[in-house]
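Morning!

As promised:
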Amino acid sequence: DTGVSQNPRHKITKRGQNVTFRCDPISEHNRLYWYRQTLGQGPEFLTYFQNEAQLEKSRLLSDRFSAERPKGSFSTLEIQRTEQGDSAMYLCASSVVGQGSYEQYFGPGTRLTVT
Amino acid sequence: AQSVAQPEDQVNVAEGNPLTVKCTYSVSGNPYLFWYVQYPNRGLQFLLKYITGDNLVKGSYGFEAEFNKSQTSFHLKKPSALVSDSALYFCAVRALTGGGNKLTFGTGTQLKVEL
């Protein structure tokens, strides 16, 4: 399967701990996005990369959040000093620039529970 | 700022009947519009998009959507619903700021198709 993959699928952590999630986009997709989805809401944009450059960050992305895409392939999202309000589904998506496509393809998500 | 409204939290329809899931949007400039479907504990699956051209766009699984610029709407339709269509549906609009292609989503509409 050549879709977007995310690991882990589920993460339970205690408040104050750090967590890291990984996203592997569709091969050759040069744009990679992170979204957060809470219960009863649509996904909310967090940040995106074009190749290895982080081009935009949402105000939702506090200083405790950091994302990287060091080689322009996979990406990691780290949350430091987790809080209960960080509990959500974290979705990764990828797309390709040009070719008139525009749509983003989403991974299955990582569900984070902070206790 | 761009936004999407999905006025119905839930839509119920009998199998075999036509279905409509409503979406209205607000965006500066030309809208790029999308529909996604989400099954429980899964990521979002792309259904269809409107970029330009014909106002009626066709997508996966027999779904179609009608773009209406004067009413700023992009309603999702299917002529004959299936029980397997039961899922959470999201409408999304492309934000044009920064050229980043990030998506702004509605809050979702739960579709329930009953026998």
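The first strand of chain A starts at residue 5 and ends at 7.

Hope this helps with the figure draft.
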